[in-house]
Each structure stands twice: as C-alpha cells, then as structure tokens.
Specification:
Chain lengths: 767, 767
C-alpha cells in the first residue's frame, strides 16, 4: 500500500513546513534541498516514509493545488483550537488530531531537532503561527471615524467675527455660475475668470479694503477673509481678484494721495478700471530694488517719460495685463536732471477703453504656465511713454514746483522699503489663500482615506487606508499644521489691522515669514494629499491637480520664500542685538542667570531623559523647547557672523556663508509664534468636546515639530535619544488617535461641497 | 553764525550714527528719542551744539536727501583708508579728517561713552563697519564655473556599452518632427504622441525586447536604454511607448506561450496591434491580488467569459485604451465549475481594426489628468465578453483537455506573485525614466542658476544665484543623487538582464525599492528645480512644468511607493532571519564578536567624536555607517515585531504598527546599495580629472545621506553632536566646491538641446 498522510498520520508533522515552503517564495531551491537532507537524517523514519515525504518537497514536481489546499484546511482547523508556539508544535497537533500518532517520547525526541531545522531555514515559526491565527476582525480594520464634538461650534470658532463675510462668499461660489470644471483652452478660461470677478464686484466684494468715501467698506480684515474663502474655489480667480482689488487698488491707496483716490478707487472697486501691478522685471525678480525701468521727469511740461531701457528690463509676469488691464502701477527709478532718486511708483495707462494697446506700450503674453492659466500674465515693455505729472504716486516723495525732489525719507533705500511695507497686505492674503488650498486638499484626502479600503486580514473586510499608520503619519501632522497656521494667520491679520507705526517692522518680518511658512506647508501638504489619493489624486476632476499647480508659484511670488526668510531672520537678528545692547550690567547678569537656569531645569539628566507622557504633553515643556531653539540659533548666528568677519571675510561673503543658518533663525521664530498662538487659542476654548480634540491636535503640532528638529535637540544635548524616541512614539500614537476625529475636523472647515472634487461628492461610493 | 558740521567738525563724530539711523528701518521712534537723550547728556557739548545735533535726528524732520548722501560720501572716503573698529572710531576719523578737531584727551573721554551708546541701541558697530567696507568684488560674486575634466569622457562613462542605442534615440528626438510644444487640446496631444510612437516603431525601437524569431532584437537592456533616453523628451510619449511595447507586449511574452508569440508579437512590435495592460481596478489599485473581474471557463465550447461584476470592478487608468488600443491583457479570477483558481491573465479584444468598440465592452475616458495628457487612459467594463480558449496566457497555469485546472505552482498566491515577478521590468523602466526627468530638471535649473544674477555687494556686479550657499544646498545634493542613482539603476538592470532564477526574489525586492527611491528622488529634485528657477520655472516653455506633473504619478503607478517599500522591507527581514537561522553556535559567536567590534571601532568616544576631514571622507567610514544603520534597523524591527505579537497583538495589527519602521528598513538597505555601487564605479575610473570630480560628488552623496539621518545616528550614540556638525559643515563645503563643476556635470548627461526649455536654449541671454 502506498504511504499517505492519512494512513501514516505521524508524517503530518511536516505539513506546516511543507505548506510554508510552497505558499510563498519564502524558501529557495537550495533550501528545498536542505529540507530533503533534513528528512534523510531522521532516524525514526523508514526509507519508504522518507521517500514519500521527499516527494512533497520536490522543487520540480510541486503538490497539486487541491492537496495544497487540504494542508491549509488542516492548519486552519487546528490553529485556533490549541495554541502552538511554532510550526513543529502545530505539526504535532496535526499528526495527533485523529488519534495519537506520536507518543510523548517521540515528541521529546523529535521536537528539538525540528525546532533547529525551522531556525536554520530562517522560518520564524512563531510569527508564521501568528499569521495563521490572524483574525478577520482586527483592531486595524474595525477602527474608524468617531464624532466626539460639535462640528458647527468648531466652525464658529474658526470663522469668528468674520463668518458673515465667509458665508456670503461660500454662497456665491456654491452657485451654478461658479461650477468648477477643467478648461484647457486658456483664452476661454481667462474670460471665465474675468466673468467670475465681475460677479464678485457686483456683489460688492471688490472694494472692501477701500475707504468709505471712495465707495469702499474700510474693512481690510473682511477683504482677507474674502480672499481666503474664495481660495476654496478656483485659484486663478483668487489671484485675478487679488491683482485687481489688492495689488492694483491697494498700490493706489498706499502709495498715492487724495487726488488718486478720488480719480481711481471707485472704478477699481467695481472692476470698471481693470489694472495691474508692474514691479517685477525679467532681470529683477526678488531684488526689486534693482529695477531698471526709468521715469524721467521733464520739467518743461511737467510729465514723466517711462522707459524700459534694455530688453530684459521689461516688466514680466504682470497679472491682469495680457488681456484685460487698462492701467498699471509701474515701479521705476525716478530721474531728475540725470540724477537717480531711487525707485518710485507711477500710474501708466496701457490700453484704452476699447482694449487697444497704447502707443509706446508693447504687451506680450507670458504663455502657458504650470498653473493659474486663468490669469492673463503679461510682459510689458515701455518705449518713451509719456504720462502726466499727476500720475506719480506721491505719498512718500514728490517733485515740487521747482522740479526738485522732495521726500520725508532721505534714504532711497529706506523710502523704497517703506513703500514696500505699505504693500505688506499681499503677504497676508497669499498665506491665507495657501492655507485654504491646504484645507481643501486635506479634506479630499482624509475623506477619501476614510472610505477607500485596500488590503486587509485574510478573509476579513479590507481596511480603510486611513487606518494604516503610514497613511496617518503622512496626513495627520498636516491637519494639525492647518489648525496651527489658521490661528497664527488670524493673529497676523489682527496685528496688521490694528497696527501702530512702531510695530510695522515686526509685522513685516512676521508676514514675510508666515508667507513662506504657510506656502511651503501647503506645497508639502498637497504633495502628500496627491500621493495619499493614489491614481484618484491624479485626475483633474478631484481638484488636487489644480490646487497643487496653482499654489506652486505661491512660494515664489510676493517674494521668493528663501529671500523672505532672510528678511525675517535679519529682523530677528536685529531684535536680538537690541535686546542685548539695551541690557545694563544687571540685565546681562539676569540673562546669564536665565541661561544657567535653563541648563539646570531643562538640560539636567532627568529632564533630557524624561519620557513621561505627562511631561511630553506639558505646554511648558513645549514652549521652553521652542524658545530654547529660537534663542540658541539666533545667538549662535550673531556670534558666527562676527567670527567670520573678524577672520577677514567680506561682509557679503560672510552673509552668504550664513544663508542656511538665517533660514533656521526665521523657521525657529515662526514655529514659536505658531505654538504660542495655538496655546493661546486653547486657553480661550470653553466647550469640553472641542477642547479635548484641539488639545490632541495641539500636542501633535508641538511634538511633530520637536520630532522634525530632533537632530538639533540631540546635537545640543537638550534631549537624549531615549526622549526623542519617546516623542516619536507619542507622535505616532497621536496620529492614531486623531484619525478618529479627522473627518469631523475637516468638516469643521466647512468647505462648499462643490469645491471638493468627484471622489468626495457625487462619486463618493466608489471609494 | 549757524553751527554746521563744516565749521564745527568735532560734531561729525556722530555722522556715522546718524547715517545708520536714517539708512534703514533699523532704529525705532523711541530709539531716536534715546539718541537725543544721549546727546543731551554730553557735557563736552554746548547747548547750541546739542540743539544742532538734535535737529539731525528729529524723527518728524529728516535730513534732506542730499545731506544724507554727503554723509555717505564722507564714510566711503574714510572707511578704507584706516581700519575703524566701530562707528565711534569711524566718527573720530571723520571729525579729524580735515584737521585735528578732537584731541587725544577728548577721544579718551568720549570713546567709551559712545561705545556704550552704540551697544545700547543694538548697533553692532563692527558689523556695520564690515558692511561699509564690503568690496564690489567679493569671493561670492567672482565665483563660477570651471571646466576641470573632459565632459565627453564622462558621457562615455555614463552611457557605457549602450551609447549606440542612446545616440540613436537622441537623434530621433532632436529631429524637427519631435519638436516639443505645449498642446492643451487633449485629443490633438494624444494623436501627436501616437504619431511619435509610430515613428519610433518604424525606426525599429519598439521590438527590442522580443525574441529574434518574432521580429525582435532580444535586447532587453537596449529597451531600457531607449525608455530612459526617450524620457528627456515628452513623458506621455514614454508612457505610451512603455504601455504598448513594454506592458502589453511583455505581458504576452512573459505570461503567454509559443502560440501567443507567433500570433501577436510581431504586430505589437510594429504598433500594427495597439494594446494595453488591464490589471488595476477602481477598487483594487495596489492590492492587485484582490481584483474582482472574473473569467469563467465554459468547457462545452472551451471559451472564457470575461465579466466585471460590480461597477467598481471595472479596469481603470488603463493606458492606450481610451482611443487607440485594440486588445488588452486582462487580469481576472479564473472560475471553473464555480471554483476560484486565483488571478490569471487573458487576451481580450476591445476594438476592431476600424476602432469600433466590441460588444460587451464599454470604454470610458479617464478624463483630464494632472499630467501625461498625451496618454489615452481609459476605463474598461466587460459584460460577459466571450473569448476563445487560446486567449488564456497559459505559461503558469492551464485548463487541460478535461476542463481541469493545472499549474506547476500549487499556491494561487505564489503563482500570482510569480506572474508579477516576470513583469518586474516595469519597475526598472520607470525609475530609469524618472532619473532622466530629474537630470533634465537639474540641467535646466543649474544652467539657469549659473547665469541668472540677483543681488550683490553694493556697487558690484550682481551674483549668479548658484553662488548662493542656500541655492547650492538645494541643488547640489540632488546632482550627487542623480549620479548615484544612475550607477545603481545600471547595476539593477545588469542584475536583471543576467539573472538566475534563485536571484529573482532579491531582484524583485531591489527593483520595487529602487522604483520608489528613484521616483521620490525625482519628485523632490524637480520641486527644488522649479523653485530654484523662480517664475521662469513656472512657465511651461521651460519644461519643469511637464516634467514635474508627468512624473508626479510615477510614485503611484507600477505600485504605490509606500506599498513597494513594504515589499522590499519584507524581503530584507526574511533575509535577515535566514542569516540568523542558518547560524550555528560558532556563527552566532562570531556575530556577537562582530557587534562588539563595531562598538569598539565605531562607537568608541574617539570615533563618535572624530571630525577629521580625512576620516569623514573615508569610504570605510561611510560603508560602516550605512551598514550599521541598515543592520540595526532590520534587527530592531525583527525584535519589535516579535515583542508586539508576544504581547498579544494580532499579526495584522502588529504589521500596521510596524509600517513606518518597515519603510526605514527598505530605505537604509537602498542607501547602502547605492553607496556600494557608487564606490564600485569610482574604483573603475582611471581618468584623473573625472576621478577627482566624481570623488567629490560621491562624498557629497555619502555625507548628505548621513546628514539626513543624523538624528538616528545621534539617538544610537553612533555619532556625537560635534561630529554631525562637522558633517554638516563638510556637506556645505562640498556643495560650494561642486558648484564649480555643476554645469559640466550636467553637460555630461548630454541631453538634447531641444529638450532643455527656453531659458537654457534660445533665450539663454535673458538669465
């Protein structure tokens, strides 16, 4: 009689190993031979039994599919009855399942030899057993969304006193005229965007920021809220809107005087007078102080002649000019009697009311762009274009009746930066617009991840991908960032709206920094959102495409981010030096004492190794850690710069060596401000449910930032490895916890359904 | 007589302070008052003198522009004659410039008081002085490109034995028919791409990978070189080409048998028979094992019925099908007598020769995408489509004459992964295509940065932006990565082309990992390139737009990167266990000894603090550091997984907790492989000039990776802060050095001019 497992059940001891061998690509050909060798060495088997067993692991003659499935059935039947520790124990269970085929003595003899074989083949029996045992219902696939707080209340908290403006904009962009679709034809797209802008102007959205006497609402905060809310919709619309009512209109308001307001503001606010803002030149992008366009004053007829001398002195990327603009604010060097009086601003007509381009003006189209193709960016060249005296925007400098230059600000440099300072609003509108785009992306990706199922335990339901730790790690920190940045930008806006003159420097530095911080965060957020939505994230109908490509240029315009971060850093360095300079002896003494205290309270071995969860979630710990980083980086930068110059490096070269260090100054400063604002906001929340979820988000924001900079903290000895590892673990745990709140937290953004893309709205079922 | 600086020169001591006060926004209004207070306290001044001085710092009445400029002239004249240490010393020089207005005694009295005032106002005199002294010619603005090696020889080194294929492709894509332009109209774009593919097929590029007996060239390596070189051109073309000749053709070759080769391969290679590869379903993207499409075998007429049961079981994103494909390889569960035999592959016609869609087949268009709009991705639904018996691709499983399932691989799981394994070529073609896109982006951004000037020392030439440290830090590491990945992917290709069966698992794991590594690297590289080109990087004419958006999906298709990294990690974990399993007692003893040796040689205080440049550039140090990281991460993962399961976690849940750790396993493994291949390549270079520059690039690659992971090294105590700081400094230094080689290093890629975008080619002058 032929040997079978049925008539010789003790041989079944090898079934688990055979199953594993054929199940996956786990064993190599050589290992199949090794297994055969092992069988040959078993003295308790007869030759016939050995030969039979070896037929089951003949690499060139696999078992039939049905036999293989029978093995699996045997394993499945027994795996949960008893609790085998490895494949040998499981094999014994199978061998003895019908009747005792292996005696206790046999087992004592066989077990150690088999265990050694398992280990030599690298089969970690224990884990494979765990795999066999895996349930169809696991923690991972049963997890999901929980509503633990009142979403509407959180929306109210976010919108604050701006909700009336926000709701009005949401209503407009949800209307049928504003239906979103991909318009590949650039000309058509631009007209659509212009039409949308006209509707907004008609609804009274265009002139919020202008004084009431010129048809406006004197509500600059409202203007920013409109910009931000519009950003849930098409971003070409936002930029066109911002160029017309922000850059163009505000350049008149900020740099001009009464006569200009009277003449232009009303028509700008109604879009009767479309215009642009012509600062950037092909050869001077971020270094706007270096513009080469000239405005030569002619005293005889009191006019200015605007000219772009060389080809690449032309004005480039000027929004609202390739098709629609009729006038622009031009930044040009004022020349009087061949003497250069620095950069000033002038209103220059470029088209008549019938859209004919005026003499001396050449307008080219910038052509197809990565995004924002609904905005008509143009290139402007001026060849001796004469404009009247009144077209000089003369708030900060004038040409007097004698044809002499006059200004309350003697330094050309300082005057120019004062002019730029009045235009800082753009650096508030852009980061807020960027934040809205990040929120939209997060809402799409999180709602998709909550529904989309992929992989799962054998035989069990597939798992919503947002339950995967890696997926959480990709999205949850950005959700926390969105809230942190929201509160921080509200703070910036309020500071700006209620500014005193002596605060302007600080506010400018803050705006420059927050613009960079927010736009880079949006870039990173949308990148993760795209990948987190897989192929769906690549389809234009799901919006991440446009959100990502439109905001891509946010890191460049209104000032290249790396350049702006240098600005912020310079301001911080100046502040640091002043603080230090103003200290008298006792001040310095206190400073030294403070530093020593930090060493005692924060850098002692207990603190640097403290992994207690309560400590890691302590707001005091966070603010100390953030401030410590900020202070150390700025003071080491001051010392380093001095050392470089002392060593004979030219100041310009030294500044160059310091570039990356400067970015760190700005980054650590901004982290601290955002942290403080988040802490402050928490202190104002009374609703228990909201407070709890916001505390979790806050902790994730704080600890994720510490985790991002842990190399620095380790280098400084501020934390030891054991603590940074505990932070990492807690970040992961917080991501897991917040995943339950994630959908409601995006619901609280209250983004119009029509802006959320196909996977979230009409085709939600397919996820 | 009124007091003036001229008639009372001692007062000029304050000119530098006054200049600084009005120059920038450096002093606040309060500080102007403080300065007035200071003047009031100077006992050596008369009241009239004080009053005069105070008029110069009256915040509401600034000096005239011309007076301000006179101050600057005085400073400029004196600053380089002597060597003042601060503003007071400079003031004294000015005061005494005509005649000695201040005596030695005066100076001794005044100087300390003034120095204190400077410090209290936070004016760091020394640095301001350094700024005044800044030369027009600095190190930073005089730096630039140097040619230190033979570019053509480096190109030869990169191309190796593939240069004949590469040059042929370059010639074709440089021809007028292949002129690149932005085509917004999707339909037009798709036809253009099809035309390009036809030209390539006519030139004999389509059938490289097929056996000679079916019209091919049996040159799979050549096929990959073609794919990579085409990727300098339009990436829609590359993907369409890859779908037709790679996915569609290779699925027949890899999964079919003789009868299929005879019938189809020739027509596929000439594009007579356009087709696609229908694996992905809406509900099953990365989890392809879960596809729901069925192929029911009908024994009576020996046919199969293909069906997509539920709506979202449809095949989605299928390239080459929305417009052009006539047949596709469909992956479906084979059902015989209502029994499921796992996923198998079938050839299913979808259109006739006249492009009419066949009965039972529904084809929808995926619509507009973020990129690759020249590829016609479609959605395929099959309603009981009957195909003949011969259309089953039957290399790994067959239905025999009795209508029974037969396969040499009993496990459905293993069989499916064996099938997928034969298709691993896609995971070689994609990372190589991604690399080419990164090289194109780098070439554009580096050449732009080399020419584009922005900012500079006062009065000096503006600086090429590539001379800025921050700009170098953004681009140089990616240039090093491009070379490292180039050598690594060549290694992968050679391994694949010369593979033995027992190596397949390792090669599959390597390909999955390198696909993720390369595509993520391209994503990051192109992001930096876009930002590094500022507004120019946003214009479609400069190509970064398309390169970025087209490769965006590379991180998702051919397997989502995070999923693929898990695959790689599983393989590494398996290998680790086998190594450990196979160790006998003496092996384990040796392992323990080795670990101890690591501690002695690498983790002793001398090594962990060694900042010697020679040590930091030592290849032995690098390979030890990389291997240490790899081994520690994999062994800690093995221990951690065991611990989680021991603690009662379900295996599926434990695997979920381990996700981020698994990514680290794969990442550290890939880093080590790329490092080894770069080291190996260096050892083969004989040309001195090339060797030197490649050593620099190699060092940057190695040290930049260590810098990226320094938090981990610090946590482990493998390095101390002093060493990681030295690494950062050396990375910065290497970036500075390589900047000189950067343009020639991109020239060596030898990318056709026509593929480099407007800023590099016809409009180069404008930079």
């Amino acid at each position: 009689m032929d040997i079978t497992f049925n008539n010789n059940p003790k041989l079944s001891i090898l079934i688990p190993v055979f199953y594993v061998a054929w199940q996956d690509d786990f064993l190599t050909k050589q290992e199949f031979s090794a297994l055969a060798g092992f069988i040959n060495n078993q003295e308790w088997l007869t030759k016939a039994e050995k030969d039979f067993l070896k037929t089951k692991i003949d690499y060139s003659s696999p078992p039939s599919r049905s036999e293989f499935f029978k093995w699996k059935e045997k394993i499945d039947t027994l795996i949960n009855k008893s609790n085998p520790a490895n494949l040998t124990e499981l094999g014994i269970l199978i061998a003895n399942s019908e009747r005792p085929a292996l005696s206790e003595d046999d087992i004592l003899k066989i077990a150690p030899v088999f265990a050694k074989m398992e280990s030599e083949l690298g089969i970690m029996g224990q884990e494979i057993i765990a795999g066999f045992k895996s349930k169809t219902d696991t923690v991972t696939n049963k997890y999901g969304t929980v509503k633990s707080f009142d979403v509407n209340k959180l929306t109210e908290l976010l919108d604050g006193d701006q909700s009336v403006h926000i709701d009005k904009v949401k209503k407009i962009i949800s209307s049928p005229e504003f239906k979103l679709e991909t318009i590949s034809d650039t000309a058509e797209y631009r007209e659509k965007v212009l039409d949308w802008c006209k509707i907004l102007a008609k609804e009274g959205m265009g002139n919020y920021a202008y004084p009431k006497e010129y048809g406006g609402k004197a509500d600059i905060e409202g203007y920013f809220s409109i910009m931000e809310t519009l950003s849930y919709h098409d971003l070409s619309l936002v930029i066109k809107f911002g160029v017309q009512f922000g850059l163009w209109g505000m350049s008149i308001l900020s740099l001009g005087t009464e006569k200009h307001y009277k003449k232009y503001l009303k028509d700008v606010g109604t879009l009767e007078l479309p215009g642009g803002f012509a600062m950037t030149e092909t050869h001077h992008g971020s270094n706007v102080k270096g513009v080469q366009t000239t405005a030569v004053y002619n005293h005889r007829d009191r006019t200015f002649t605007i000219n772009t001398p060389e080809k690449y002195d032309r004005k480039e990327y000027i929004g609202n000019t390739a098709n629609h603009g009729e006038m622009v604010t031009v930044f040009a060097k004022l020349i009087i009697d061949e003497k250069d009086y620095g950069v000033n601003a002038f209103i220059v007509p470029i088209r008549d009311k019938n859209k004919n381009v005026l003499e001396g003006v050449t307008i080219e189209d910038c052509g197809h762009k990565m995004g924002l193709n609904g905005v008509d960016n143009g290139i402007l060249t001026f060849k001796n274009v004469i404009i009247p005296y009144d077209n000089m925007l003369d708030r900060f400098s004038q040409v007097n009746e004698n044809g002499e230059f006059e200004s309350p600000i003697p330094s050309d440099n300082r005057r120019f930066f004062t002019m730029l300072g009045t235009l800082v609003g753009g650096r508030i509108g852009i980061p807020r617009s960027a934040l809205a785009a990040a929120k939209t992306g997060l809402t799409i990706a999180i709602k998709y991840g909550d529904k989309r199922r992929q992989f799962g335990p054998d035989g069990g339901l597939e798992v919503p991908i947002l339950n995967y730790r890696m997926h959480q790690k990709r999205l949850m920190p950005y959700l926390a960032n969105a809230y942190a940045i929201h509160f921080g930008l509200q703070y910036l806006t309020k500071r700006f709206v209620n500014r005193k003159e002596e605060e302007m420097q600080e506010i400018e530095a803050l705006a420059a920094g927050m613009k960079s911080y927010s736009t880079w965060n949006t870039r990173n957020t949308l990148q993760e959102c795209r990948e987190a939505c897989g192929g769906k994230g690549y389809l234009s109908e799901n919006r991440i495409d446009d959100l990502k490509n439109d905001t891509e240029i946010y890191t460049t315009f209104e000032g290249d981010n790396t350049v702006l971060m240098q600005l912020t850093a310079k301001n911080r360095l100046g502040e640091f030096r002043k603080q230090f300079g103003q200290m008298n002896v006792s001040g310095i003494f206190n400073y030294v004492i403070d530093q020593a205290k930090t060493s005692i309270t924060e850098k002692n071995p207990f603190a640097t190794r403290n992994t207690d969860e309560k400590h890691l979630k302590d707001k005091e710990f966070h603010i100390h850690a953030f401030r410590y980083r900020e202070n150390e980086i700025v003071s080491s930068a001051a010392k380093r710069f001095k050392r470089l110059v002392d060593n004979g490096l030219d100041a310009f070269d030294a500044a160059n060596v310091m570039h990356p260090h400067m970015i760190q100054i700005a980054d650590s400063y901004l982290d601290r401000v955002f942290l403080e604002q988040f802490q402050y906001k928490l202190s104002t929340i009374t609703d228990e449910g909201i407070k709890e979820v916001m505390e979790r988000l806050y902790n994730l924001f704080a600890l994720n930032k510490i985790e991002e900079h842990k190399a620095w903290y380790l280098e400084q000895g501020y934390m030891e490895g054991v603590k940074t590892k505990a932070v990492r673990k807690l970040v992961s745990q917080l991501c897991w916890e917040i995943r339950q709140d994630a959908v409601p937290l995006t619901d609280a953004f209250n983004i119009p359904e029509s802006c959320l893309g196909a996977i979230v709205t009409n085709k939600a079922a397919e996820a």
